[in-house]
Every structure is written in structure tokens, then in C-alpha cells.
Amino acid sequence: MLTGTILIIDDEEKLRSLLTRIITLENFTVLQAGNLKAGLKTLEREQVDIILCDVKLPDGNGVEFINEIKSKYPAVEIILLTAYGNIADGVQAMRSGAFDYITKGDDNDKIIPLLNSALEKVQLQKRIQLLEQQVGKRYDFDTILGDSQVMQQAIELAKRVAPTDATVLLLGETGTGKEVFAQAIHNGSKRIGKPFMALNCSAFSKDILESEIFGHKAGAFTGAIKDKKGLIEEASTGTLFLDEIGEMHIELQSKLLRVLETSEFIKVGDTKPTKVNVRIIAATNRDLQEDARQGKFREDLFYRLNVFSISLPPLRERKKDIPVLAQSFLKIFAQKTNAKVTGMSPAFLEQLQRHDWKGNIRELKNIMERAVILANTNELTPDNLPLEIKTNTSSNTLSAFDLASVEKLHIQRVLNHTNGNKTEAARLLNIGLTTLYRKIEEYGLHSD
């Protein structure tokens, strides 16, 4: 059951007492104030989740009070108590940012469900804020794991562009860590400490995505009962990360292009432009240049986004990094589940390094979480892996009795021995360098 603190602001003592009895029975903590001044003093010393406030008070108007509260305590939700039949107060309250309004004295049966809904929103916002704080502190360049050459190159490029305000385009397959890189770039810039907002462009329809990014004015469409800031405005002075930018509807692309070129945009239903100071980091797993050639993506937007691009390698091209990534996930999930798992057997690691990882780091993370949950000892073994990992460790895996399988395994071991030095590996194998490259491609070998 949800519990929270409710502040009732009303000059009618009998009504305050009645509401207090009703609400207290539902395990809410209830505070009271007879006017706006007393209510503000209560807010200064108490952690309040929801305010139940009368519209007409001796020292002010509850509707006007909403703006003051929201500016000082944005996480607090406000429900107004309106006089019978005074719908205008209710409409104005919603436009000002109230959670809802109820008719004073006649809607007592609606109070508890309404308080529960408002409290759910409050607690969700608190969780989001906590998560954003944790994410903001967690992801910087020191926390990005990977010693492989391709990963170090990507990290070095990100470090160089981070202190600038340049637009960045992150390229890579799904699950390669594009959002982690975006957060690290933000935290490595002069915008650190400012908002970092992220949005997946493939998760919404065109109209909803437009409202989410650019915001809207009250009355812009059915259900738009109050002004709403879009993420691009919420992220002003900070960074907006647009994931899966290739899925953005082409009509919205022109609005985004205007932001990049003029630092201004027009909200849905508005006629005046809004100025913003925001850095855009975009990401995609698509070939935007090819999409632009086919008319699926604006060519001018592609070149504006592609000021500085960074390609993130898939996990199959940086298998050298699998042990350190796996160990990191092991530690995280062992703590999360209170498991006493501390290590991985050589056979377990060998199975991980032989797998294709089409889902990249995200797939590895899921596999490690499952393995930790299934572990019965302090060491992970192949028995903790799902069947598809143990029986199909590579799309190019051959029979254990096949001569090519033996050759594949031997070449991989020599490459590991030479730390990816192909010239030295070809010498040790007594084959030509061109032949070695062909074998690496044929068998899908890791050659870092």
C-alpha cells in the first residue's frame, strides 16, 4: 500500500478535520494549514507529497498559489478543492499544473483514489530523479570497460569531442552501449551537472514523439489541457540524447534541423519560437547515409548530425573485452541477488568468448544475470549458461570432429598468443598473411 504525506490547506476547520479523518484511515500522514502563509511554512519544514488546497482562502487564491508551489517544489502534486459548480476554477487549475480538482464537500468518495493516483506519480518522479542522479554519477569515461584497440579508439574520440558543444552521432548495433557513451560525453563536458535527457525515437508515434520532444500549448489537441514542456526544453543548458534517430518521422526531422541551425523551435499549437541552449547527441543502428540517398532521411539533417561521428564496435569484434565485462556484471548481480559468486571457470569464459553475441553487451549482461541466479557454487561454470550458448557458441561453429574445426581453434590460439599480431601469427602458422586474413573472415575469428 502506498503511503505519503498530505497537506490540507483550507480555512474551514470542520472540513479540514473531516478530510483528515477520511485520509488518515488510509494510512496517509496528514498535515493541516488554515491559509496559504501557514501552508508555505509547513512546506518549508516538512516533506510533503500532495497538497489538497481550497481555491478561495483569506490570504490568496489557490489557483494562483499553484505556480508558486510548482516553482519551489516541482515534485509536489496539488489537488484543488473548488466551490460547487465552479468549473472555471478547475479548468484554470489544470492549466496551471494541478494534478486534478474536486468539488468541495461533494466528492469525498473520490479523494482516496485521486490521492493514490497522485502519489503514484510523485513516487515515480522520485524514482526517475534518483535513477538520473545515479546514472549521471556512474557513467564517465573511466567506467567504460574495454582494452581492445577498437574500443580504445572510440573512447579516445569521445574524450576529444566531449569538452566541445559539437553535435555527435553515435553509430553501432543495438546493445553496443550508445547511451552509456552519450552520458559519458555529457559528463565530460562543461554541461556536467546540467540536465541529461534521453528519448528513444522508435518508441512513440509521430504525434506523441513531436509532443515529447518539442512540447505543446494547452488546447493544441484533444487532451492537451495545459502547457507542456518538451524534452528539448527540459534539457536546455544540458544535453538531449536522441536514440534510434533513424526512426524519426521525416516531418519531425525538419523541426530538429531548425533547432540545430537556429537553436529555436515551435511547440505544437504555438505560433512563437522558443529559444534553447541544448547539445544534441544522436544514435542509430541504421545506415543514415543510405537512408538519405533513398529519401527516407533528410540529407541536410544527416550532414548536420554527422558533425562528429563515433562508431561503437559490436562485441564480436572486441572479444578481448569479454572477461572484464563479464566480471563487472558478475559483481553487480552478485551484490544485487546476495549471491556468493566471485569468479568464473576457464571453461565458462571460453564459452563466452566463442559466442557470436548478436545482442552485444546487452545480451552478455542478461546471460550473466541468469548465470549468477543459477549458480550453486562460488564459481560460474558452463552449466550456468543457457543451452543455446553451450550448443551454438558461434554461427560458424563446426563439428568437434571436423578438420576445419581443429584448424579454427588452432588459428585462434595462435592469434591469442600473438595478441592479435597477424603478421607474427602468419609466420608461426607458416601461411601467407592473405591466407590468414581469409581464414579469420571464414571462421569469424577474434583478431584483436
* Strand order in space, largest sheet: 2-1-3-6-7
Number of helices: 19
Query: How can the largest sheet be summarized?
Result: 5 strands, parallel
| Low-pLDDT stretches | 393-401
Number of strands: 18
Distance between the termini: 53 Å
Compute the average pLDDT: 86
Helix share bin: 40-55%
For the record, what is the CATH homologous superfamily label of the largest domain?
Answer: P-loop containing nucleotide triphosphate hydrolases
The 3D shape can be described as: elongated
Query: What would CATH call the class of the largest domain?
Result: Alpha Beta
Fraction of residues in β-strands: 5-15%
Structural class: alpha/beta
The CATH topology of the largest domain is Rossmann fold
Number of domains: 4
CATH architecture label of the largest domain: 3-Layer(aba) Sandwich
Radius of gyration: 29 Å
Task: Note down, in words, how this protein is organized.
- With 448 residues, this protein is of the alpha/beta class.
- It folds into four domains: 5-131, Rossmann fold (3-Layer(aba) Sandwich), CATH 3.40.50; 139-313, P-loop containing nucleotide triphosphate hydrolases (Rossmann fold); 316-391, Helicase, Ruva Protein, domain 3 (Orthogonal Bundle); 403-443, Arc Repressor Mutant, subunit A (Orthogonal Bundle), CATH 1.10.10.
- Helix content is 48%, strand content 15%.
- It is built from 19 helices and 18 strands.
- The protein has helices at 13-24, 36-45, 62-72, 87-96, 108-138, 149-161, 178-187, 206-214, 231-234, 250-262, 288-293, 299-305, 322-337, 346-354, 360-374, 387-391, 403-417, 422-429, 433-443; strands at 5-9, 29-33, 50-54, 56-57, 60-61, 77-82, 100-103, 168-171, 196-200, 215-216, 228-229, 239-243, 264-266, 273-275, 279-284, 308-311, 343-344, 379-380.
- The strands form six sheets. It has a five-stranded parallel β-sheet with strand order 2-1-3-6-7, sandwiched between helices. A five-stranded parallel β-sheet has the order 9-12-15-8-16. A two-stranded antiparallel sheet has the order 4-5.
- The radius of gyration is 29 Å and the shape is elongated.
